[in-house]
Each structure stands twice: as structure tokens, then as C-alpha cells.
């Protein structure tokens, strides 16, 4: 009972971006102490309590990380519809984010890659016209970053894809979007990406514990 | 409380609260830094190169430009940004190693104080103009129709080489001017002129790695010599089996001195006496032949008296005997090097000759001191310079004046002693152009300030000052796109000016890159060291082109040696040593925070100036480390904090070079003092070089303790034996088993 209670409180905190360091600085001492007690309980109590959570049948040998977050709506130079590409047309995430399996960053697709299709497909659509304008100016659209971790965190897409996709027995590469969704949510149902996972240390740690990822500090904090 | 004016108490308070925040947050708190959605722009490639993968670095070869040594670089580039510099293993200069100045080249490139647009001075203030307007303005003053008299044009530059040097030469001839003044404060010009006179070769190669015993007389070859990294790689070989012995004699301990088996403090200006004293012991005690020397020199050696010399130099006779023993056991496998504090004396030239006498006696010439390579492209060779360039420039202003002056690389307003009056004299030149990355002291007086590309963004070919086993041309290629669109390469600017003078020859080249790539389009096989043609891409990938060189032999020709003692000066009893450092160098790197915060190798002080004084002098003055003293020469005074240090002769006082900038960006401005300001303008006899280390000064206590920020507090172990030590003698006896 206690475990369930703590777990739901933990999720609430993951969502609660308002409980930020800056607000803590301006809060009173007594509130901070009270928070300290509650949060410390959460931190110590939350690990391992979610283990029985929703496994994804499309991703064998993996426990998806728990946690939600409601990010800001980021205005992009072109309102890129992920759902048309990844859901309607079933294009593999790694077709465009081609660096994900090779590098620490997934990479924004080169504009040339967009134009590979869109010099002939849907050329009359306003978004494609805008894209073509950029292309003709020899400028990539100034995309805004949605998902990020601090500079002191070394996160690599390549290692995570190897663990959950390429070295994962029984995992089909065509279902890779389910693995991407662990941290990015169901992007294939979105237009422009929206941050729906907290991507903080608790989120990372719980996944590493559940999936037996490395536990050394220096793995991420090099 | 703004972050800018936060004090210690406020900082601790904030840290306390942050600590609470961190504990409360645990691992689940979304930190402020993770909440950057929509703030940063991610720029994708338009069409990527096949090998470019975001997140994975690509290494490019280039050449370091932080000092004149010309070490080869490898630069790691990721997402179009240069992130890390290392040495190029293919360069025979540095063999894959790189010093702290080289590593810190990044901070010169990314420096927030870099100039971004051309500026012209109007009514005393600098205002933005376009490049076209700037070049037109230059053309009005030096163009074909300007009526410029070449003799009234001067260009003051730091040392240059390669195709930039050739283009500058060609421009100078097009303008009918011979006034190209190469100016470097940290230089070896006196030693070079001794080498030229005695050996017929200004830059012989000292084969440190092949020597078994080295005596350095003031030459800080590991720190601020002609090629510190090259010397260090050779030094590794010198110290490996059999372990060579190093003796260093100098007034103030340098990095090389700190590495010595025997370090000897010498009274500044008596280095020649010391050298002849060693020669005397070699001849009398070790019976080494001196009949190969001219009679006059033989007499000079034989009349030395060990005890009397010890009194004059401050180096004990026992030490002289010990050094002589090392040298006499290694004839033909030893080197006596002279430089720095020994050559920068009024009698510095003769100090150099006296050291060369030792080399001749020991049979080192042709064995450990070999001829420089006969470089097949003389027009590309390294143009070294010293302070003669500065003095000649001042002379050119005095004798009839100048109409136009260009400045690149050198910052003479900062490096010139105040006694030269350069600052005022510059006012008489109507049009002064500064090609610079930063708003340095010279640019502050210029009429036109043109922002040039950083070495990370520009093309060049570099011929190193001192070549290694193979002579090379080192390629400098941009490792990233220019940070600022409105900056230009120096090569491009010179090419533009040449086009206006000689369109027929230079009109076909769109850019300096086009000029260089055409020059290297077919590097002939018979000019390459390995007999294979070098393509442009090969040259860029490898970073160096080894060229075929001719053989030269050294032949020593000594005439006479006349060592003189420095004059007594009752009013100014001490000698000021403005010490160059492997860090801020001559002050050009004072705007690089990494080098400011890197502790000085000897005193461990950071971000400041200090004066090294001997404990005896400190006692006499009643000062201790941290107190401030006033150092007064006949030319002026500086006020600086004291660092009491045993590694200095009691008659010397050492103040490091590099600080005391007025301007030159936020990291350099108003920090410490510039000892060059109070130097006398006496020159080294027989040369036109300033005697940099001979200015006589007096000191007095100025203030009580101030903050001198340094790593560690004292240089002794307080009897705690944290590091066990043995003397070299004991080590030799026991093989290190004691």
C-alpha cells in the first residue's frame, strides 16, 4: 500500500516541472525542509516499485521507463508532421534520423534528404513550398531543439539502440519507433515533436535498474 | 543579487540553498538545464559529407600558430566546430605532442573579444566600415596612384614564413619599400648572430637527443626556446638510457633550470666569465686540447682563475669543476647552449662566443651541433626577428618619418620599452593599419583596424623556425568555417593589395586558397624528401610536406673572445629579468583564460604578475611573499607583489612577461604589470638587439600583504616527506636504491 502510494506520488513529481530549483530558492526554509522530507522518501522509495509495469510486446526483453512530462509547444520553422511520415506512411524513424544508430546524437535529417522525396512528392503543399524555399536559399530550416540533456550528461543513442534493437533477440527493426517512444513518447502520433518524458536522472536511473543498464556514475557523467 | 557582483558570502549562501535544492530534488527533479525546449537551434546539414556524422569527431591536420616553432596540429571537429587540438604525429617538429599554448589555441579562436568588423578612426573614434571601403582607403594611401614613397612605408610583423612571407615580400617590392620589420620579444637573435659568425649558420640544429651532457647557459630550451616541444621530445631521448646530465646556469630558474641535475644561480652578465672558467678547468684539470683555438682565446682561457671567477659569477668553483667533469667525459657528445638571459646582456654576444669556445673545445660542432638543412625554397624560409625590428622601426620614424605603417602579429606599442617613446612617435604616422584579431594596444592607435581570421579559419604554409630531422613545409588549413562573416584572412588581404598593383600576375587568383592550391597543384617529386610527388590532398591530410634538402657542413671559425663584466651601479644595484613564460609568452596570450589560470611552472601564481626575489633580498627589504614592492629603473617604476624564491640570484629580480595590458580584451585588461615598460634601451654590443635582461633597478617596499593567488602555499615539505628525494650524486652512487 505504501509502495503504491509512493509510486503514484513519484509520477506526480515527474510531471511537476513547477517544483524547479529556482522556485525552491525563493521558497521559505520551512517549506524546503518539508519538501526535503517528502522528496527524500520518494527518491528512496520509488526504485523498484514500478517493475510490474506495462511491458511492450513489440519490444522483447525490455521494461519501458516510467514517467511523464508535459513539455512546451515548441514553434518550429516548418510544422513538420511526424504522423504523416512515421504513422501513415510507415517510414522507419532511422530512415531520417540516420545517425541514431551510429552516433550519440540521432541527428536532424539533412535538408537534402527531405528534398530527396519532396522534390517530387506533395510539392504543392504550403509546408513543402516553405521547405523548398529554404533549400533554394541553401539554408537548412532553423529547427528548434525539443529533447536535450545537460552538457554534463553523456547520453548516446547508438548504445541504446544496440541494447534495445540490434542486439535484442526477437526485436524487429521495423518496430524501432516503439523503442524511440521509451524516451520520446509516441512521436509518430504527433506533428512537431513534443516533450512527454521527463528525461531527468530519476527517469534514466529507473530504466537502467529495470533493464540492468550500467550503474556506474561515470558511464553518464564522464 | 546579480551573478556579476556576487561576493563570497552571497556565493556560499546560494550554494547552501542549491545544496538543499539538490537534496530535495534527488534524481527526479527536472533541473533548469534540461528545460531548454525550443531555446536552441539545431542546424542540420544541407547535404552532408559522407564521413561527417554528427556527434562523431573528424580530425584535420593543420599547424599551430601560437609561437614561431610551427608544430603540426590535429584538430577534432564535430558538427562544424573545432573542439580539441593535439599534436600531429607526422610532424618531425613535435612528433604528436603539443604544449599548453598550442592546446589553448582554441580560446584564441573562440575568444569573445575577437574583432568582427572593419573599423576606421573618425574624430578619434573607431566606426564600422565595409571591407570594400577599407580596401579603397588602403589603396588611396598605398595604391599605384597614391604617390607613396616606398621608403616612407613600413610593415611591422611577427615572424612570418611560407607563402604569406613571399606575398608580403612581393607587396613590399611592389611598393618599393625595404621596411619589413620582424619583431619578436622572445627571440634568439643574438645567439643566431653568434652562430652565423662562428659556424656560418644562424640556425644550426642542436641534437639534444644524441647528447650525453648538456650545459645550458641561460637557454630555456624546454620552455621558451626556439622550439620548446621539439626540444622536449629530444630531451626525452637525452634523459633515457644512458641518462644524460643537464647543468643549467642562469640568474633565475626557468622551466629548463627546474629540470636540471645541477642548477646554478649566476650574477647576470657574468655568463661569459663562467664559460671561460669551465674552459680553463677543461684545459688545466682535464688536459683537453685548446690548440685548435686562436692564440688570443687560448690566452683568455688560461688567465682565468677559478676562485676569482667564482667570486665574480656567484657560481661556486666546485660547481664549475663538476660541470667540467661532465663535459670532459663526453667530448663530441655534449652541447653547450646559450640563450635567453645570457644573450640579452650588453655583453651577451661575447657570452655567446665564450659558450661556442666550449663547443669547439669539446668537438661538438658537426656532431651534436649540425648544420641546418639547405632549404630548397629560400623565398618561403622562416623570417625570424627580435627587437632589432622594433628599433629599426623606431629609427625609420625618427629618420625622416613614415607616411603609412602596417601592423600584423606584432604589438609594438605593448612590447616597446616606454623609453623608446613609440606611442608618441606613432602619432606622426598619418595612416596606420592594424591587421588583428583583437583590440590590442597597437590597434588602439591605428587609423584602420581590420579583423583577420583566426589560424583555425585561415590558410597558410609555415616553415618552422628550427627544423627537425627532416625539413618540412607545414600546412595550415581552416578547421572550421569563419565564426564571423566580416573577417578576412591576411593572405587574402595581401593578395587583394597585390592584385591592385600587379593584376597581370595575381589577377587570376580568386582567393589565397586558390593561390596556395595552385602553388601545390603539382609538388614535384624531385623536391619531395621521399621522391614521390605530393598532391594537394596528400599535403592537407598529412599536414606536412617533407622536402628534399641539400647537405651543409659546419666549420667553426673563432677569432677572439672578450668577456666583460657588467658595470657596477650603486644607484640601481639589481638587474631586472623580464621573464618569458611558456604560457602568456610575450603577452600575446594574456587574453586566453586557460593560460592565465595555468599556474606558472615555477612560482605557481595565476592571473597576476609577481616579482621573484631571493630570500636574502626579501629579508633586507623586510618583505615576504604577497607584499608589494616598487621596482624603479632609470626609465620608470612598476608596483608588483613579491614571490620570495630561492631559485634566483640575490642580485637579480625577475618579473614575468605577459601581463599589464591596457585593453586587449576582458581577460587581459588591467591585470598585473608589464616589465618591458621600464627597460633601458641599451643594445647588445655587436648587434642591434635590445639587451632585454640587463636593465638595472632598485627596489623598495610599497605595501603590506596583498592577495597573491597561487597553487600551494610554500615550496617545502615541512619535514613531512611526502615525496622522498635523493640528490643526483647519491642516485648515481646507489642506482636509486638508497
Kindly describe this structure.
The complex is a heterodimer of chains A (222) and B (738). Chain A has a domain of 45 residues. The N terminus of chain A is likely disordered. The relative contact order of chain A is 0.17. Chain A is an all-alpha fold and 222 residues long. Chain A is built from eleven helices and one strand; from the N terminus they run αααααααβαααα. Chain B has 738 residues and is of the alpha/beta class. Chain B folds into three domains: 234 residues, Rossmann fold (3-Layer(aba) Sandwich), CATH 3.40.50.740; 171 residues, 3-Layer(aba) Sandwich (Dimethylsulfoxide Reductase, domain 2), CATH 3.40.228; 130 residues, Beta Barrel (Barwin-like endoglucanases), CATH 2.40.40.20. Chain B is built from 24 helices and 26 strands. In chain B, helix 5 runs parallel beside helix 18, helix 6 packs across helix 14 and helix 9 crosses helix 12. The longest helix of chain B has 18 residues. Chain B is globular and about 75 Å long. The termini of chain B are far apart. The chains are: A mainly alpha (222), B alpha/beta (738). At the A-B interface, helix 1, helix 2, helix 3, strand 1 and helix 10 of A face helix 1 and strand 1 of B. Strand 1 of chain A pairs antiparallel with strand 1 of chain B, so a sheet runs across the interface.
